[in-house]
Design a protein that fits this description.
mainly alpha
Length: 369
């Protein structure tokens, strides 16, 4: 298709070129006008070193002078101040008529004068003229039309300075699976930590995650133990969990292999029996009659225990004739004899005085410690 037949917007290519040429003249006129404003502002308030003064004269505050000038010509203080600064950075001999005032003002940010004056005459590679975005890229400022991923990220940061906007943008992005998949594990962890600072949210998220077998399987043994300890601080919860665990044969067997756990279970059983008996004695009308029967039964049990021990010893001891026990075997027998002797003393005390309390030493012997 011939170039004259290619449209730009609603006009032909030829008409577009005419418009561009016309507007370039307008831009040049605007640039000259802006520099005139800057030069006259400099005339009123020259750019001086910090604290500088003109000999014998009192210098008004710069802002006051420029504000008055801006009001008198119908512009804003910011426009006048920006024109003054740009004019101070671009002496007349270094200004380019074919470069807009805005580009001059952006490139004025180049600190080194030689580098600045060289840059204005050398557009980016492949370009014949400076654009506003090219100038912004040159000085490291935010561009209006981002192209590279870095520029787009910078633009998003600029738009998301407000925390509410940032939160909304982040939420929207993370709803896109392809985006969420590219977030590093470390950043995901940090994000979750931030989102779960509220304890209610943290509890809900933790509960949901631990319901996923694949997640729970990756939790270390130590962390699982700590979690269970935290979750069972409530005694009713601990009771229900423990009951459920002890109903599992393998768990019960391993738990009872622990001396302390076994001792606590035995103690609990004895304590439960004692409490049940006390409750029965306090509340049952037949408790006195039962106590009489129990005493008789206890007497019979005690006599039977003594008889059984004597009979068992009578059968076992003769078997030691001409046998020589090893040191370990002798030690075990002596320890058990000491326990028997202590038990016999305890029986005699109970029979003679009715006191069945066990002192620390006796308790240690009876428990085999």
């Amino acid at each position: 298709m011939p170039e004259d037949h290619i449209e730009v917007g609603s006009v032909s290519q030829q008409r577009y070129k005419q418009i561009v040429a016309e507007l370039r003249e307008v831009v040049e006129q605007q640039s000259r006008a802006s520099f005139v404003i800057g030069d006259r502002s400099l005339e009123i308030e020259p750019v001086r070193e910090r604290g500088g003064r003109t000999a014998g004269e009192r210098i008004p505050v710069v802002r006051e002078s420029l504000t008055r000038l801006a009001e008198d010509i119908g512009l804003s203080f910011g426009t006048v101040a920006a024109a003054r600064w740009a004019a101070s950075r671009w002496p007349k001999e270094h200004r380019r008529a074919d470069v807009s005032f805005r580009v001059h003002r952006i490139l004025a940010g180049i600190e080194n004068e030689d580098e600045r004056f060289l840059a204005i005459s050398n557009p980016p590679k492949g370009k014949t003229r400076w654009s506003v975005d090219d100038a912004s890229r040159r000085v490291g400022q935010q561009v209006e039309t981002p192209v590279s991923p870095e520029e787009k990220v910078s633009a998003i940061h600029a738009l998301a300075r407000d925390e509410q906007v940032a939160a909304a943008v982040t939420t929207e992005f993370l709803r896109r699976p392809n985006v969420a998949a590219q977030v590093s594990s470390e950043d995901k962890v940090r994000a979750v930590e931030e989102l779960t600072r509220d304890e209610g949210v943290a509890a809900a998220v933790t509960t949901s995650l631990l319901r996923r077998p694949s997640v729970a399987a990756q939790v270390s043994r130590e962390d699982k133990v700590r979690v269970v300890e935290e979750l069972t601080r409530d005694e009713s919860v601990a009771t229900e969990v423990t009951t459920g665990l002890l109903r599992r044969p393998d768990v019960a067997f391993k738990a009872m292999s622990d001396d302390r756990a076994r001792h606590e279970v035995n103690h609990a059983q004895v304590e439960r029996g004692r409490q049940a008996r006390e409750h029965f004695e306090r509340t049952s009308p037949i408790a006195p009659a039962v106590r009489h029967i129990e005493r008789t039964m206890e007497f019979m049990d005690l006599v039977t225990a003594c008889h059984s021990f004597v009979a068992a010893a009578g059968r076992a001891v003769p078997g030691l004739r001409d046998r020589h026990l090893g040191e370990d075997e002798k030690t075990i027998v002596h320890e058990n004899v000491a326990r028997v002797r202590a038990t016999l003393d305890w029986i005699e005390t109970a029979v003679d005085t009715g006191k069945v309390d066990v002192d620390g030493e006796l308790a240690r012997l009876l428990s085999g410690q």
